[in-house]
Design a protein that fits this description.
The protein has 831 residues and is of the alpha/beta class. Helix content is 34%, strand content 22%. The longest helix has 21 residues, at 135-155.
Length: 831
Amino acid sequence: MIRRLQGLFRRYAAAHQIVEYEGFELLDELGRRIGYLDRLRIAENRAILEGWTTGRDVHMILDGNERRAMPSMTRVDVAEALGLERDRLLGFVVAQHYVEGRCVLGIGMGNGRTYFFEVPMPDEAILDRATRAVRVPFARDLMRAGPHLVKWAVTRNPAARAGVKRALRLSDLPPSISLFDAEILEPDTSAPPKPQEITIVMPVYNALDLLPEVLQRIRDNTDLPWRLVMVEDCSSDTKVRPFLREWVKALPEETQARVTLVENAENLGFIGSVNRGFDEARQHAGHVVLLNSDAFLPKAWATRLLRSILEDAGVATVTPMSNDAEICNAPVACVRHDLEPGEVDVIDAFAQTLNPLVARGEAPTGVGFCMAMNARFLKQVPAFDTAFGRGYGEEVDWCQRARAVGGRHEIIGSLFVEHRGGVSFGSKEKLALIQHNSNLISDRYNDYDLEVQQFLQNDPVEGPRMMLGLAWAQGRQDGLMPLYIAHSMGGGAEVDLKRRIKAHIEDGSSVLVVRVGGKARWTVELHAHMGVQGCLLEDDVVLHQVLAPVQGRRVIYSNGVGHHDPMLLPEIILALRNGPSDALEVLVHDYMLVSPAYTLLNSKGVYEGVPPEDSEDPEHHALRFDNTRAPLSLWRAEWAKVLAHADQITAFSQDSATVFSQAYPDFAEHCVIEPHKPDLKALKMPKSKHPKGDPVIGVLGNIGYQKGASVLQAMSADLAQSHAAGLVVIGDIDPTYALSPPAMVHGRYEKTDLPEIVQTYGITKWLIPSIGPETFSFTTHEALATGMPVYCLDLGAQAEAVGAARNGHIITRPADMADLPEAILLAMLSN
């Protein structure tokens, strides 16, 4: 048990311990600065160098292994601070797997000259301190994982294993933050507050092409009594001021009385113009809405935007969600995207259906593109601070001052306003000011950056963000939207899913992923070109309510391992395919369709072929949520209903298609074989450092019981006595199993690191130790692509691939599986 805990700790430490150094200036022989190494980080078995340079080529040499820098964006902030042209300065990130040894950073200047800089690496004492630093969090997380560990030890339930990974923060999947509040979707039955007059303050600089629609939307869509103060700031486009004069002149007399056009004698910039607008607004009663001249208001916007202020005197500002409003963006916070003409109205029509009392959250600041401001706080803090120059961050400063006198700031999801940012005041000017003003905010409000990060991490408006994202995605969808049902356990199915998502997005489609076995009963993810938004659900009914905006789906079953009651999953899959034009595809990523024991191992932990429907082996009976068991015949009958509605059934190897057909002969002819096409570039292996005749067996991937963990444990014990070969796992091993030294576990790896890893450990041959049949094995194909000898047992898609390769070797399983470790070593060491 102690050895297993030690193995678990090593895996935890590899994932969570971080060593980080501040960098240093990169100087040429004359002392001129050619760059800066911002930092060195060692985390997750990788050494990472980050910085910037005026050079054109960056590479890292660690223990003799060279790695070129990944392409990176121009560091605009540094370029402007140094007064350099943007294309003269390159940001870089270069990384490779961490090993002890000398580290050198090379900077090529593009003129044939390269400079080399020694990068100090941590000594053993520093690494020991980093390891010790994670002992306390490991103990804390281990206590959280305790119930899941017990359940996994007793039942081998994959959901329990997923719980262990979550508790120890070892999951590779994108996190979802909070539980979806289903009340967001409930109708609002409360009485709206009594209407009050508002004053809209709109500074104007250029953007003549947008102004007609922006102004018309104010007239047509404002559902509260309103006044408008426009401050024209000496636009460089001389047509703007005459246009505004003519627009006001053409208004009906009653409307003219409510519109004020302020014409600056000289250009004051955004802040100066806003402050003039505030001065004018104070001459009238009521609250103020600060509105950019590139913000497009939907119908009935004002009542929704002002509601929180009218109901709660302590609310200082309210900001709607948008496509370009930083922390108020939907579907992904802080990631802007452009909208098609009229698209704002489609998204906002859905926003109006969300409950305004629930679809909101407190934020550290408002965003000034369309921000309702409580007159009470505007009286106490009457102006934006001119220290922020021509604009950027001034509303953050105002909001912090309002908080100091008791004000709160809200973001609401019941209103969506389009913002064509960077048009009215120019993205160029914004970039020039961003560094200075950001520093000013940080100096004044030391905790602000942390508060923003905490807001984004806890995201109180994650639910509305998700729902508005679904409305946006549905409006953009051309054809059926892909909806994948997936698990939360990583592995080859996740590799395939990520590739499919990438392909869909490159084709212009958004993608929905509904996961089982994660932090909650369901995790719903919306993948789009701007990123991923997710939420957690605990109720099947709410799942269907959340997905309701998406009409026209292509449901793709990828994997359901980890569902709390998998007998219910077929019915849910069919319900997700809810429209007459919806499609359904089934992917045979594992054998869950064939048996609840998705690896097809029986209660003895042995593969004995496809189990018959009348199997009495308890491992092939479905364990229900109430701890009862359903026979295999009922299990297959339920999944047969899904298969009967499937437009396509896809297997990834001939062997998996054969297994599927034996279990479901009625659907055999509907099963097509489409092998994965893994990217196997850059896997050319260097010559081993180890002397000839000194074999080292390498094992790729994360190894659980079905992948051969117990076999490796026994092999390592044998090798510890015989010293006939080395053994190293490139990946992780289930902490239930411990390897005997000198066998090693490398931990996580990147595929591109394999040549260097092989050289570091002197690996001479590969073993695929799986004791159950794989449907397709990415690690097998990676091992074969190295050109080195690859060994595996005579079963599954792994044997299909190895048997067809020139460097493949098949090992016949012995009659008694207890003899398997010895049989493997005999086969591998006799060649």
